[in-house]
Design brief:
The protein contains five helices and 19 strands. With 305 residues, the chain is of the alpha+beta class. β10 and β11 form a beta hairpin.
């Protein structure tokens, strides 16, 4: 293992020794040919480790990587114990290929990988907690305000849809739009903690760095039908062609799976927004981020209890 000047550690390379700097031939840099996951660490333990391993395994299968997730998690846990409190960011790319261009040489066991890890010491604040129906406890952050963004997420075919791949330009542009809006805010109280983003079909999918869950009022009227909604029912947008299958999203879905009101996947459309009664974003590092208000593209603001 070698540390480079930016604090990255090379855990695995096909070369006999990891270079201090990533080659410009690295396929993650050249083509986005890889994926990443970000793990919180508290008291030397990787949070939601089983879910991160599921992500690593599913992504390796989808991208045809030869990857031993069990051995990798053992290495990561060793680093977590040394870190005690902070964040581990893992990037896995396909190793350089002997052929020119985008292609790679198919192999029964999958392509060889390069694995990079960045260790960041930081305080992960968990001021409050939310107990899910299955008894699992997840971090609950203070409420934030949110804004609908004009940026759109790309729609992708299987098996790429839902992957936390290195192709994140749509998220980059959405995050840039959110930062631009916040730069014009007159004071900190007017800044938005997250932005709601739709995909190219017009469905609202997730935040710039998080998944989203929502509830609707007891009665939602659309232009051609009346839909009766249970106010205790939580929904989350389906991620069949865009967005990321987040770790915390999976934790929450599993937490409600055997309850009296399991969470339903349901598209979130423009006409639903005025009838939202509750909304929260979530990710594996911060946990649940309740939303106190949502500013629509029209400028209208919806306030939540």
């Amino acid at each position: 293992m070698i540390n480079n000047s930016d604090g990255w550690i090379c855990l695995q390379s096909r070369e006999s020794q990891c270079a201090n700097n990533v080659s410009l031939d690295n396929r993650g840099l050249a083509y986005g040919d890889g994926f990443f996951t970000t793990m919180g660490v508290i008291d030397g333990v990787i949070l939601w480790q089983d879910y991160h391993r599921q992500r690593i395994d599913s992504h390796a299968i989808a991208l045809q990587f030869n990857l031993d997730s069990h051995a990798l998690l053992l290495k990561l846990q060793t680093h977590a114990q040394t870190l005690e409190q902070g964040m581990l960011k893992l990037i896995i790319t396909r190793a350089a290929q002997a052929i020119r261009g985008y292609g790679f040489l198919p192999c029964v066991s999958g392509s060889a990988c390069e694995i990079w890890l960045k260790i960041t010491a930081m305080t992960i604040t968990t001021p409050e907690h939310w107990q899910l129906p299955d008894g699992l406890i997840v971090p609950l952050q203070p409420a934030i305000s949110a804004v609908c963004l004009t940026a759109q997420l790309a729609c992708l075919p299987a098996p790429l849809a839902g992957l936390k791949s290195l192709n994140r330009l749509d998220n980059v542009l959405a995050s840039g739009e959110l930062q631009g809006i916040n730069q014009t805010a007159p004071n900190l109280d007017k800044k938005f903690g997250e932005g709601l983003v739709c995909d190219m079909t017009g469905r609202w999918i997730e935040g710039t760095m998080s998944n989203v869950f929502y509830r609707l009022n007891s009665q939602k009227q659309t232009s051609d039908t009346a839909e009766q909604s249970d106010t205790t029912q939580w929904f989350t947008p389906p991620l069949d062609c865009s967005g990321v299958h987040g770790v915390m999203r999976a934790v929450i879905l599993d937490g409600f799976a055997t309850s009296a009101t399991p969470i339903m996947e349901r598209p979130l459309m423009d006409e639903d927004l005025p009838y939202l009664s509750q909304l929260f974003f979530c990710n594996a590092l911060r946990g649940v981020m309740p939303v106190s208000s949502l500013r629509l593209l029209t400028g209208e603001i919806i306030n939540f209890a």
